[in-house]
């Protein structure tokens, strides 16, 4: 069964191109390790909620935009094996010293999900 990792982060608006470039260097690693698809999205219509919302979830400031991303894997075993290999590898694309994140990684929220309904696509 498929498996999905989801990510939400706050990125300074003036670093949008840096965000795209960073993703362009790091996302191919996921594909090389078995991911089926990686999607990076830039906030376009991210409303403020009454109790909670994406902006508050990542403590986005007025100068930041919310980015949302997901990685589709064929199954959780492939994802787990890929994450284990990433921890062990010395790939400079994964090294924050050679490919620094253009956002505050401490405010990233993420998790792994098992699809329960998939219509279309």
Describe the 3D structure.
The structure is a single chain. This protein is of the alpha+beta class and 121 residues long. It has one domain: 2-Layer Sandwich (Alpha-Beta Plaits). Helix content is 28%, strand content 26%. It has 3 helices and 4 strands. A 4-stranded antiparallel beta sheet has the order 2-3-1-4. The radius of gyration is 15 Å and the shape is globular. 17% of the residues are buried.
- Percent strand equals 25-35%
- The class by helix and strand makeup works out as alpha+beta
Order of strands across the main sheet: 2-3-1-4
Per the CATH scheme, the topology name is: Alpha-Beta Plaits
**What is the CATH architecture assignment?**
2-Layer Sandwich
SSE ordering: EHEHEHE
Give unreliable regions as ranges: none
The strand count comes to 4
The biggest beta sheet reads: 4 strands, antiparallel
CATH class label: Alpha Beta
CA(first)-CA(last) distance = 16 Å
Number of helices: 3
The global form is globular
Average pLDDT works out at: 91
The tally of structural domains comes to: 1
Radius of gyration: 15 Å
- Helix content range of the residues, please? 25-40%
